[in-house]
Design goal:
The chain is an all-alpha fold. The chain is 79% helix and 0% strand. Residues 1-143 are annotated as: Disordered.
Length: 218
């Protein structure tokens, strides 16, 4: 091959100078070098475009990930906000429930206090009523005893029923209505058994016994 080429270039053509062939050879060499450089440049350009494309793809992927991250962050903040709102609402409801419970307990306490006060007043009223009835009963018993002792016909009977039997004993009747003290019963028995005593002294003794006097000496 080299031999042929050498032979080819060795053949001298008519009307062709050696310098012209050398220039052609140099021109083709330069063209070849230029094409090689162009090819290299295109390869580099292609590589650069590939890298640029890869870079843009990575940038796009990065932006997509960033966008997704921001969306997730936004969703997370929204959920956090919703959770705080629900927590706040729950605390408000809990506070309202505790307030209502406190108010209910206060009303219940007030109601119990009023009920207790009402029962106390009712008890006091019943006690006063009982005391009043006892006083009325005591007053009625004293009048009955006084009427028995001061009967003008000398019988131990109340003035409002003179037709009763002589065996009727008003002190016993008086004791059935309200039990008398033992000392009062003894005084009545003595007064009834010994009618020789003056009636005024018997009445005085009975009334003093009924209304708080003690140690009555005859």
């Amino acid at each position: 091959m080299r031999r042929k080429r050498r032979k080819k270039w060795g053949i001298k053509k008519e009307g062709e100078e050696p310098e012209t062939r050398r220039e052609e050879k140099s021109r083709r060499r330069e063209e070849k070098c230029r094409r090689r450089e162009e090819k290299s440049r295109r390869r580099e350009e292609k590589s650069r475009r590939r890298e640029e494309k890869s870079r843009r793809r990575e940038e796009k992927s990065r932006r997509r990930e960033e966008k997704s991250r921001r969306r997730e962050e936004k969703s997370r903040r929204r959920e956090e906000k919703s959770r705080r709102r629900e927590e706040k609402s729950r605390r408000r409801e809990e506070k309202s429930r505790r307030r209502e419970e406190k108010s209910r307990r206060r009303e219940e306490k007030s109601r119990r206090r009023e009920e207790k006060s009402r029962r106390r007043e009712e008890k006091s009223r019943r006690r006063e009523e009982k005391s009043r009835r006892r006083e009325e009963k005591t007053r009625g018993g004293a009048v009955a005893v006084a009427s028995v002792v001061m009967a003008p016909w000398g019988l131990r009977q109340p003035l409002h029923s003179p037709s009763r039997s002589r065996s009727a004993c008003p002190p016993l009747r008086f004791q059935r209505r309200r039990p008398a003290p033992a000392s009062l019963a003894a005084s009545l028995a003595r007064c009834g058994a010994a009618r020789r005593r003056p009636a005024s002294r018997c009445v005085e003794a009975i009334l003093l016994r009924l209304f708080g006097a003690v140690n009555i000496s005859w």
